[in-house]
């Protein structure tokens, strides 16, 4: 199941990372760079929804796809955040919160799977909301201009990425609370 249509779409998100980063080093006008990077991020981020939909529709779900999908999302978000911090469009503290949470919850999920308690940290609506806010904030910050001469994407992106940071902490606390009974039960043994 390495090369089904949904899995190939997931791989494109991983391949997109150096392309999006590379745009910011290309010799072109800053506004053009911003527009290209934003368009690329939006297209590749949309594959997150589309690959899951196609996997279910085409009956091509797999354990490998279930593993690769969140990894691709985390790579795309973390790389984009690092670019935004480097360009001084996102606060390093926000990036540390979001990236740190991704590492911590991934490790927690792996551990819970090893002890047979993965259902206690299954994806929750709060985590999906956090991801959605991130996926809106990041392209706003990548664009960093006025959209339709009305929306200042830098301002909106900053507010949204801070909201994503709050949701990140909230969702981490939620998952830790769900895992705590299992952790306590294992430690007591």
From TrEMBL:
InterPro entries: CDP-alcohol_PTase-I, CDP-OH_P_trans, CDP-OH_PTrfase_TM_dom, CDP_ALCOHOL_P_TRANSF_CS, Phosphatidylglycerol_P_synth. GO terms for cellular component: membrane. One of its GO terms (biological process) is glycerophospholipid biosynthetic process. Its EC number is 2.7.8.5. This is CDP-diacylglycerol--glycerol-3-phosphate 3-phosphatidyltransferase. It is a multi-pass membrane protein. It holds the Pfam family CDP-OH_P_transf. It comes from the Bacteria. The chain crosses the membrane at residues 6-28, 35-54, 155-176. It is an enzyme of class 2 (transferase). It catalyses: a CDP-1,2-diacyl-sn-glycerol + sn-glycerol 3-phosphate = a 1,2-diacyl-sn-glycero-3-phospho-(1'-sn-glycero-3'-phosphate) + CMP + H(+). One of its GO terms (molecular function) is CDP-diacylglycerol-glycerol-3-phosphate 3-phosphatidyltransferase activity. The gene is pgsA. Belongs to the CDP-alcohol phosphatidyltransferase class-I family. Keywords: Lipid biosynthesis, Lipid metabolism, Membrane, Phospholipid biosynthesis, Phospholipid metabolism, Transferase, Transmembrane, Transmembrane helix. NCBIfam families: pgsA (TIGR00560). It is found in: Membrane. Pathway: Phospholipid metabolism; phosphatidylglycerol biosynthesis; phosphatidylglycerol from CDP-diacylglycerol: step 1/2.
């Amino acid at each position: 199941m390495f090369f089904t249509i949904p899995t190939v779409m997931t791989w494109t998100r991983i391949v997109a990372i150096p392309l999006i980063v590379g745009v910011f080093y290309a010799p072109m006008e800053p506004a053009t760079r911003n527009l290209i990077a934003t368009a690329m991020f939006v297209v590749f981020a949309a594959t997150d929804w589309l690959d899951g939909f196609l996997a279910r529709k085409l009956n091509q779900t797999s354990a490998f796809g279930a593993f690769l999908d969140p990894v691709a999302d985390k790579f795309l978000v973390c790389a984009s955040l690092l670019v935004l911090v480097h360009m001084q469009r996102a606060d390093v503290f926000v990036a540390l919160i979001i990236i740190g949470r991704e590492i911590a919850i991934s490790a927690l999920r792996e551990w819970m799977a090893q002890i047979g308690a993965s259902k206690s940290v299954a994806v929750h609506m709060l985590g999906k909301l956090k991801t959605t806010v991130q996926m809106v904030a990041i392209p706003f910050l990548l664009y960093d201009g006025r959209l339709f001469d009305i929306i200042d994407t830098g301002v909106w992106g900053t507010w949204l990425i801070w909201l994503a940071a709050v949701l990140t902490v909230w969702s981490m606390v939620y998952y830790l609370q769900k895992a705590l009974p299992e952790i306590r039960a294992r430690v007591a043994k």
